[in-house]
Design brief:
14 helices, single chain, alpha+beta, about 950 residues, 7-stranded mixed beta sheet, 48 strands
Length: about 950
């Protein structure tokens, strides 16, 4: 025991000596570079304040009792009210029929609330909430600058230290920071924060994705980094770096704080990590805030930042105060890049750029708030990259710093907005408090994130309203153009289009717009791929970026419900799934998803290729690559809300028509007869990493079995950067096609391929034995009834407009999938999601098809009505289904068959009689149906009465 005591005593003496040495070393290091942090993450006390009593009752002077964990939100801690019919949601509800319609009654019952508008949080709270934590300030912080850093609060924060009110912060897109110098003296202190997520005087718009329940949710809390820090009293508050690519230098604006109460002299050392570049200067500082400017040479071996070479630098600044001898150190990353609008072209470092973008609308179902870790943003950007994108727009919000860091690393161009959609609950430019807030918030954003090379574009926000929004936003653009040339600016996403904007964002150049319904390109014109937006583009001298193109919906993936394990639940999906089951079609959910998904992908391909075909176009911003869960549930993504694939198109398939290099073909039509010649001018859009040298583009035409019918090569050529570069014309005589065929043109340029389906039908059709025994009618006369019930075969061809309302005559059926969704658009057409069929059904044997819509179905969907089979036997299985809106989930048919008496009937909702000489698809489909009806395979199983058939039509 004695020996052990001696050994322990020696160890203790050695430890004390070592501790003393470390303390001396630490103090010595403090003299050169002082920086300490106290991490505030972990357990906090909290209290809810729905009655707004906290300030009056001095809660900041009391110890709050309950605890939660931060960073996080009340909801992520399971705190808040249960969802009810009185939940005070943030955001417009355009279709409020959920609250009144009988079919939703069971979803309005307590304990079974399932709202269809958006994802449903597990708990909800709107109002003031108090957060409290005791901290101990070390003696070493005495006489230092002390600051509180809260990376992201939602929304307004008020801070008390002990019983003293410090102030209020209300930034939606940047950290809330408080200067607590001389307030946090050494010893224990009580930090109390009141966070309020209500809209008060400053209203960015209740649908803004910065605050709305449509997407991230109206959360209350603090996320990201939460800490106290100590720095020297004379310290660097921020650095702004302005690259000059042409002259290979940077201009550095350094904000320095000197709160000592007297002037002082400082030495500023700047160095770029990994290089020998450095600069040292001495400055005289006044008391208070100072700004010093330094020009810094980057040397001749300059690495430029872009999507192909996302090279960045780190600038380190050391500021030594000669009075105190203390040194403050601050580092920031930056990129040497120049993002400009020159004429109608966007240029990155002098090279043409084309934005292939999507939106991020603050959709984070697991947490309900944006991620603040770089890894998650890298995952998102890499998924976008895999789909051929190079750009992201943040719709009415600003992401955290981690998003900019990840975009810098992956070479992604970001369009950032100042947290507003001033439309609906408010306006902009009319003197409301948000007008001034916009300038303050944009200043904070640029100071916080302005050095990131990925921060390429900025707008006030989305789709503004207000009598004076045009002059107000014009001045906003002019202000920022004069102040900071590191990015380009526009008034807003969507409108207004003003001469002062560097680029224009407009919804006009797309294949389906709001209110167009059946008059759009994709629904009102026969399929082709030769249109572009050049006529529109030529009206403006700036680059045009098409705003929120796509918005093509897909049927819900009910397997996705299990993924909602965080703060959000897909109760909307559960509601839709139940209504599908109520209509006896639960087993078709996966088929509806895949079939509507194939149509959705076709629509996106058409939208994207039209943009790529447009000369001197700025690019496009999709809505969206992934689903938008709000605004009535807008399932517009080929990816789900978690950025996961749904099973009907892969990233590699998507990238064929959405990439830096994309072959393009201008087909005047997609359906031919065998007495014609197929001709397609071929070109390429190339915005890659430099021109392509000595390329030999190739083409081939194949059938559905991949048999090559014809192939060829174009002349060897050099391909410059840009688009509309012509490669040649594919010409193929169709005279050898003797049977109906679905063919494919595929073009390959520099190893990258793209393809287009087209259809060829025989110009002269063989006679169908026995077709004279079929009666083809548009209504049931007494003679036809007698013929049918006594064993005849009837093709009832319903002319457009003859179907009764009760049987589906009021359903707006068109070729494309649903645009955005029916709830938010007041039922805009189309209201359906394409077809679902069995391609091997003998009725379709002479009408080549897959199980989903493709362009050969455009004519049928444009000359038809969807037959509502709700009141028919559930055993009735249509030959061709129409996929209904997931909200109504009705069993709809385009073609079905039945027994009537002793006879057989085939009912077509498609007009197969009008103008057949101009409608080769209808002609061919009619031929296929007649051939089926004369065969022994036409043997319907389900029996209907003659009155049920007659009940289909308007009396």
């Amino acid at each position: 025991m004695a020996n052990r005591s001696i050994t322990t005593s020696k160890l203790m003496r050695h430890s004390l000596v070592l501790l003393a040495l470390l303390t001396i070393l630490f103090v010595s290091c403090q003299q050169s570079a002082f920086l300490q942090k106290i991490d505030l993450s972990g357990t906090w006390q909290y209290a809810m304040d729905p009655a707004d009593k906290g300030v009056a009752e001095s809660w900041f002077n009391q110890v709050l009792r309950d605890t939660l964990s931060l960073p996080g939100s009340l909801t992520s801690n399971g705190i808040g009210d249960d969802i009810s019919l009185k939940t005070p949601w943030m955001g417009d509800i355009v279709d409020s029929s959920f609250y009144t319609k009988p079919e939703y009654a069971k979803f309005r019952e307590p304990g079974n609330i399932k709202i269809p508008f958006w994802l449903q949080p597990v708990k909800y709270y709107k109002g003031a909430a108090w957060y409290q934590k005791e901290v101990t300030i070390p003696e070493s912080w005495n006489g230092q600058f002390v600051g509180l850093f809260l990376e992201r609060c939602h929304w307004e924060s008020n801070l008390w230290v002990d019983s003293k009110k410090i102030g209020m912060r209300n930034s939606l897109g940047t950290p809330h920071q408080y200067d607590l110098t001389r307030i946090l003296t050494p010893g224990k202190h009580l930090l109390t924060l009141c966070i309020d997520n209500r809209v008060k005087d400053i209203d960015p718009g209740n649908n803004s994705h910065s605050i709305s329940d449509h997407t991230q949710g109206n959360w209350n809390g603090m996320v990201g980094q939460l800490y106290l820090e100590a720095r020297p009293l004379v310290n660097i508050r921020s650095m702004q770096i302005f690259p000059d690519v042409q002259n290979k230098k940077i201009a550095v604006k350094v904000k320095v704080q000197n709160p000592t109460g007297k002037p002082t002299s400082v030495n500023l050392d700047l160095s770029v990590k990994g290089t020998s570049n450095n600069e040292s200067k001495t400055f005289e500082l006044n008391d208070g805030d100072n700004e010093v400017d330094v020009t810094f040479s980057m040397g001749n071996e300059l690495k430029l930042w872009n999507e192909f070479h996302p090279d960045t630098y780190t600038l380190q600044a050391s500021l030594k105060d000669k009075t105190s001898g203390q040194t403050d150190v601050l580092s920031t990353s930056f990129g040497m890049r120049e993002f400009k609008a020159v004429g109608r072209q966007l240029l990155i470092n002098g090279q043409p750029a084309f934005l292939r973008g999507t939106l991020e609308c603050a959709i984070f179902p697991k947490t309900g708030y944006p991620p603040t870790d770089k890894e998650e943003w890298l995952r998102i950007f890499n998924i976008c990259r895999a789909h051929g994108l190079n750009h992201m727009r943040f719709h009415s919000w600003c992401p955290p710093n981690a998003a900019f860091e990840a975009a810098d690393q992956t070479g992604f161009y970001l369009h950032v907005e100042c947290s507003s959609w001033a439309n609906g609950s408010t306006t902009i430019g009319d003197g409301k408090p948000f007008d001034q807030y916009l300038y303050e918030e944009s200043e904070r954003m640029v100071e916080a994130y302005g050095n990131h090379p990925s921060f390429c574009m900025m707008a006030y926000g989305n789709e503004p309203a207000g009598a004076n929004h045009v002059p107000f936003l014009t001045e906003f653009v002019k202000y920022w153009k004069n102040k900071d040339n590191r990015r380009i600016y526009t008034t807003a996403s969507g409108w207004p289009l003003v001469a002062e904007s560097d680029y224009l964002s407009t919804p006009d150049p797309r294949i389906q717009g709001w209110g167009q319904e059946f008059k759009s390109i994709i629904n009102g014109q026969a399929p082709r791929t030769d249109y572009d937006w050049s006529a529109f583009n030529s009206k403006y001298p700036q680059p045009v970026i098409s705003h929120e193109i796509g918005q093509w919906c897909v049927y819900p993936n009910f397997k996705e419900i299990a993924r909602y394990t965080g703060v959000m639940r897909a109760r909307n999906f559960e509601l839709f799934q139940e209504t599908l089951k109520d209509h006896g079609m639960e087993q078709l959910a996966d088929s509806f998803l895949l079939a509507s998904g194939k149509l959705q992908a076709l629509c996106y391909k058409a939208d994207i290729e039209a943009a790529l075909r447009t000369k001197d176009f700025g690019g496009f911003q999709l809505l969206d690559l992934h689903d938008f869960p709000g605004q009535g549930t807008a399932l517009v993504g080929v990816l789900d809300a978690f950025w996961g694939e749904k099973g009907y198109i892969s990233a590699a398939e998507y990238k064929r028509f959405c990439n830096s290099t994309v072959p393009l073909a201008r087909l005047k039509k997609c359906v031919y007869t065998s007495n014609e010649t197929f001709e397609a001018p071929v070109e390429v859009a190339h915005y890659g990493d430099g021109p392509i040298s000595s390329c030999i583009p190739e083409w081939k035409i194949t059938d559905i079995k991949d048999k090559v019918l014809q192939s060829g090569k174009f002349t060897k050529t050099d391909i410059p950067l840009g688009n509309c570069f012509k490669l040649g014309t594919v010409s193929f005589s169709l005279s050898s096609v003797s049977t109906p065929e679905n063919l494919k043109l595929e073009v390959t340029v520099n190893g990258l391929s793209n393809a287009w389906d087209f259809w060829v039908y025989p110009a002269i059709k063989a006679t169908i034995p026995g077709e004279e025994n079929i009666q083809i009618v548009q209504s049931l006369s007494a003679q036809t009834e007698h013929f049918l019930t006594n064993g005849g075969a009837v093709l009832l061809n319903l002319s457009k407009g003859s179907l009764s309302k009760e049987m589906g005559g009021d359903i707006k059926i068109g070729f494309s999938s649903i645009f955005w969704n029916t709830a938010w658009t007041h039922g805009q057409a189309p209201n359906t999601l394409g077809i679902l069929c069995n391609p091997s059904h003998p009725a379709l044997a002479d009408f080549p098809t897959d199980y989903h819509s493709n362009y050969q179905w455009w004519d049928a969907m444009s000359h038809s009505a969807a037959i509502n089979l709700t009141n028919f036997p559930s055993q009735l299985k249509p030959i061709v289904r129409v996929i209904d809106d997931w909200v109504t989930n009705r069993p709809l048919a385009l073609i079905f068959e039945a027994k009537v008496g002793k006879g057989r009937i085939l009912v077509s909702g498609i007009d197969l009689q009008s103008n057949l000489d101009q409608r080769p698809e209808a002609n061919q489909l009619l031929y296929s149906l007649k051939k089926y009806m004369t065969s022994g395979k036409f043997n319907p199983v389900v029996e209907l009465s003659i009155n049920q058939i007659k009940g289909l039509m308007i009396k």
